């Protein structure tokens, strides 16, 4: 099967609907799986996908409750459960081995997958990955049980606004245009996301510990923006120390939204890194 353009699919796995997109998907091509960050979607890879699709079968996933995936109020949004959804989707698509690429929160889920089923992961690429975050504090955790707390979260997100968030995550503000703003605000038109976010806050466990990370021996590339204000570069350097089989590269004048800000540079580093292990 060969699909030159996007083929959007929705599949039900573990009682939740998962939306994903396939690009140039062919069984003879190496597979790369793209996982996005918190409050984002596969849209964040829109500038990188056209470059990668020349060389790879691409699976870009909207992790629930984000993007076009279901905003379930029954699913437990732990990193472990989200990682298992990705694993089950790969099994559904009969993918035996793949490269995982994750931005921000998506990077942490890549690491969870690598701990849970390392045999399906060929390489890992972390783009400004989250790391060493603890579970939310007890006061916020208890707040998620307050009736209508989702309305408070909705108001806070609306007050902050998509444009203000983008100003925090993008170093070069001239990149922020109407297309970008519309793409990142689109998922929040669905009112169901706010109740799902409450469950996400409630159930999300902490990031993997150093002792867990040190057990991952899969070749890993860490790419970072030197001006990242969301996940500072020092986090990337600590991850590099804990991930023993890793390489670390940073980009000056670059913020957190690396796939949007430096797609050509990211693509070149990814191709070089994956080429080192081609066929292994």
TrEMBL record:
Q: Which Pfam families match?
A: Abhydrolase_1
Q: Which residues form the signal peptide?
A: none
Domain of life per record: Bacteria
Which terms in the Gene Ontology molecular function aspect does this entry carry? catalytic activity
InterPro entries membership: AB_hydrolase_1 (IPR000073), AB_hydrolase_fold (IPR029058), Epox_hydrolase-like (IPR000639)
Every copy of the AB hydrolase-1 domain together lies at: 30-263
**Know the name of this protein?**
Pimeloyl-ACP methyl ester carboxylesterase
């Amino acid at each position: 099967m060969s699909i030159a353009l996007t083929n959007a699919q929705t599949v039900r796995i573990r009682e939740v609907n998962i939306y994903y997109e396939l690009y140039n998907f062919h069984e003879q091509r190496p597979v790369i799986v793209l996982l996005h960050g918190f409050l984002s979607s596969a849209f964040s890879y829109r500038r990188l996908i056209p470059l990668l699709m020349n060389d790879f079968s691409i699976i870009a996933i909207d992790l629930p409750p984000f993007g076009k995936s279901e905003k379930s109020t029954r699913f437990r949004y732990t990193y472990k459960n989200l990682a298992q959804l990705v694993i089950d989707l790969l099994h559904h698509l009969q993918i035996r081995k793949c490269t995982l690429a994750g931005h921000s929160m998506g990077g942490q889920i890549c690491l969870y997958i690598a701990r849970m089923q390392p045999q399906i992961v060929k390489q890992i690429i972390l783009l400004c990955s989250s790391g060493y975050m603890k579970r939310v504090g007890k006061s916020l955790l208890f707040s998620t049980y307050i009736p209508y707390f989702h309305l408070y979260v909705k108001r806070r997100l609306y007050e902050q606004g998509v444009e203000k968030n983008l100003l925090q995550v993008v170093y070069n503000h001239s990149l922020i245009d109407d297309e970008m703003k519309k793409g990142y605000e689109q998922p929040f038109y669905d009112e169901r996301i706010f109740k799902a976010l409450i469950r996400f806050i409630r159930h999300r466990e902490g990031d993997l510990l150093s002792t867990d990370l040190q057990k991952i021996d899969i070749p890993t590339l860490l790419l970072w923006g030197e001006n990242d204000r969301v996940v500072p570069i020092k986090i990337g350097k600590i991850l590099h120390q804990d991930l023993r089989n890793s390489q670390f590269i940073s980009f000056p004048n670059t913020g957190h939204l690396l796939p949007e800000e430096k797609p050509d540079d990211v693509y070149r580093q990814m191709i070089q890194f994956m080429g080192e292990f081609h066929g292994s």
